[in-house]
Prior knowledge:
3-stranded antiparallel sheet, single chain
Amino acid sequence: MSDETGKEQHGSCLCGAVRYTVTAAPVTAMACHCSHCQKQTGSAFSTIAGVPEAAFSLEGEAATYVDHGDSGNTVERSFCPQCGSPLFTRAEAAPGMVWIKTGTLDNPDAFAPSMHIWCKSKQHWLEPGALPAFDVMPG
């Protein structure tokens, strides 16, 4: 994804076997608290940034687990087959978008989430602060 200067961003898995480049600014960035993101990340939430698929390129081969959201729509969760790092997601509900796991960016400080989603399943001890928080994905 591009930062505020328009510079492209790069990212990778923990072992470096899978790398990616994003050449466009994110459409949106958020913290997702759905139970599936919690399971996938092994944490309280997942920080993600949505970028146009045309601006995303991949080096190496990612494995993909096909999941389904609460809506029943397909969610393809891609990860490194070597080290297991979750890297990005494609969701049937958002065609043409790739959802980058922002912790995999070489410079994760280049983005900040603008909202919290799926807060109906967030951990009770976590407070979203001043950012907008939605029980589900806003329409």
